[in-house]
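Re: [ENG-882] Designed sequences occasionally contain unexpected residues at chain ends

Forwarding the minimal case from QA. Structure tokens:
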């Protein structure tokens, strides 16, 4: 059995000092404080940001602030000064609210979606091979997620909700047929939330082109420049890939997809 990667401990305030800078030169960077169960993706995004600022030689003190549970509200907080940086899947609307650092932080895997279902519903998926067949089943997504519009625009039956735990609960109870979760999220979430009757549908998943970016307040152009510069340095020196696979290689390799037998149902995302 392949074991899950251990979650890394992230302190509430991380101070990054480059060289011998004095305290007055340190930039306060306000980012969201986790409002839900802690998942590997959150540790990864925090770790990536910390390393990118170091590589860019941008002295910063990262301050975590309580935020609203809805993604769109948090992106709007970048405009009023409540937050300096937020991470989110992209969409035209979201890119109008803040500066998107257009480097896909999950290497495209955010758009590859495992189908989580109640184990008693697994038989419903045995003969599904097309989008039309899948559209006859019910799914759930966040009411303000870009994914919701993508799924609906492709003809899938989606129930929008605002609470992540409620989405898993409805799926666990069999009241929803499936809950699409990205390849890099699904194992961490199932382990943390511990719904023992939930399963990943084997040999079937959906995919669509999309990306998750860091979004930076338009009032913080130097921060945006530093984040982009730092990540590009990490891509060039191999740190980016090394960090990604440190967090997610085990999860990706443990998904129940048999080579040559797995059906990928491709959706269209008109923005990408």
């Amino acid at each position: 059995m392949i074991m899950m990667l251990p979650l890394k401990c992230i302190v509430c305030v991380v101070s990054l000092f480059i060289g011998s800078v004095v305290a007055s030169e340190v930039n306060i960077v306000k980012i969201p404080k986790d409002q839900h169960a802690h998942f590997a993706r959150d540790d990864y995004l925090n770790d990536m940001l910390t390393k990118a600022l170091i590589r860019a030689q941008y002295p910063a003190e990262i301050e975590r602030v309580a935020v609203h549970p809805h993604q769109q509200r948090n992106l709007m907080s970048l405009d009023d000064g409540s937050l300096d940086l937020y991470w989110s899947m992209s969409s035209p609307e979201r890119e109008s609210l803040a500066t998107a650092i257009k480097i896909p932080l999950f290497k495209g895997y955010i758009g590859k979606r495992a189908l989580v279902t109640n184990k008693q519903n697994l038989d419903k998926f045995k003969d599904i091979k097309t989008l039309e067949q899948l559209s006859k089943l019910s799914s759930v997504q966040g009411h303000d997620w870009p994914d919701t519009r993508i799924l609906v625009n492709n003809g899938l039956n989606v129930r929008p909700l605002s609470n992540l735990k409620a989405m898993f609960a409805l799926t666990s109870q069999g009241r929803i047929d499936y809950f699409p979760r990205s390849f890099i999220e699904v194992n961490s979430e199932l382990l943390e939330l511990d719904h023992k009757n939930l399963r990943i549908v084997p040999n079937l998943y959906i995919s669509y082109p999309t990306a998750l970016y860091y979004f930076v307040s338009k009032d913080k152009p130097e921060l945006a420049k530093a984040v982009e510069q730092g990540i590009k340095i990490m891509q060039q020196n191999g740190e980016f890939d090394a960090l990604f696979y440190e967090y997610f290689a085990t999860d990706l390799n443990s998904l129940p997809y048999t080579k040559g037998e797995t059906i990928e149902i491709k959706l269209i995302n008109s923005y990408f």
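QA comment: On inspection the terminal residues look reasonable. The first helix runs from residue 40 to 55. Proposing we downgrade this to a documentation issue.
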